[in-house]
Design brief:
single chain, mainly alpha, two-stranded antiparallel sheet, about 75% helix
Length: about 70
Protein backbone atom coordinates (compact mmCIF):
# COMPACT_ATOMS: atom_id res chain seq x y z
CA UNK A 1 0.00 0.00 0.00
CA UNK A 2 2.90 2.33 0.71
CA UNK A 3 4.17 1.86 -2.84
CA UNK A 4 0.81 2.88 -4.32
CA UNK A 5 0.61 5.92 -2.04
CA UNK A 6 4.09 7.22 -2.85
CA UNK A 7 4.05 6.48 -6.58
CA UNK A 8 0.51 7.86 -6.87
CA UNK A 9 1.60 11.17 -5.31
CA UNK A 10 4.64 11.34 -7.59
CA UNK A 11 2.58 10.62 -10.71
CA UNK A 12 -0.07 13.21 -9.93
CA UNK A 13 2.56 15.88 -9.21
CA UNK A 14 3.29 16.39 -12.90
CA UNK A 15 7.03 16.21 -12.25
CA UNK A 16 7.34 13.04 -14.31
CA UNK A 17 5.54 14.30 -17.41
CA UNK A 18 7.19 15.26 -20.70
CA UNK A 19 4.00 17.07 -21.72
CA UNK A 20 0.35 16.87 -20.85
CA UNK A 21 -0.70 13.19 -20.55
CA UNK A 22 2.77 11.98 -21.70
CA UNK A 23 4.97 10.53 -18.99
CA UNK A 24 8.75 10.62 -19.04
CA UNK A 25 10.70 7.37 -18.92
CA UNK A 26 10.84 7.53 -15.14
CA UNK A 27 7.14 8.40 -15.05
CA UNK A 28 6.33 5.37 -17.17
CA UNK A 29 8.35 3.19 -14.78
CA UNK A 30 6.48 4.71 -11.82
CA UNK A 31 3.14 3.96 -13.49
CA UNK A 32 4.23 0.37 -14.14
CA UNK A 33 5.27 0.00 -10.51
CA UNK A 34 1.97 1.49 -9.33
CA UNK A 35 -0.10 -0.85 -11.51
CA UNK A 36 1.90 -3.88 -10.39
CA UNK A 37 1.48 -2.92 -6.74
CA UNK A 38 -2.31 -2.57 -7.15
CA UNK A 39 -2.47 -5.95 -8.93
CA UNK A 40 -0.45 -7.52 -6.12
CA UNK A 41 -2.85 -6.07 -3.53
CA UNK A 42 -5.75 -7.54 -5.50
CA UNK A 43 -4.09 -10.96 -5.89
CA UNK A 44 -3.38 -11.13 -2.15
CA UNK A 45 -6.96 -10.20 -1.28
CA UNK A 46 -6.36 -6.71 0.11
CA UNK A 47 -8.79 -5.22 -2.41
CA UNK A 48 -11.42 -6.49 -4.81
CA UNK A 49 -11.13 -6.50 -8.58
CA UNK A 50 -13.63 -3.62 -8.70
CA UNK A 51 -11.51 -1.57 -6.31
CA UNK A 52 -8.38 -2.32 -8.34
CA UNK A 53 -10.13 -1.22 -11.54
CA UNK A 54 -11.37 1.94 -9.84
CA UNK A 55 -7.82 2.67 -8.70
CA UNK A 56 -6.53 2.18 -12.23
CA UNK A 57 -9.10 4.63 -13.60
CA UNK A 58 -8.13 7.07 -10.84
CA UNK A 59 -4.40 6.98 -11.63
CA UNK A 60 -5.02 7.45 -15.34
CA UNK A 61 -7.15 10.51 -14.54
CA UNK A 62 -4.42 11.85 -12.23
CA UNK A 63 -1.80 11.40 -14.95
CA UNK A 64 -4.00 13.17 -17.46
CA UNK A 65 -4.56 16.14 -15.14
CA UNK A 66 -1.00 16.26 -13.78
CA UNK A 67 0.97 17.17 -16.86
Amino acid sequence: MLITEVTGKLLQSGSYHVSRVVLSTVGTDLRTLWVRAVMELRERGYCSETEANDDLEWILKQIKEGG
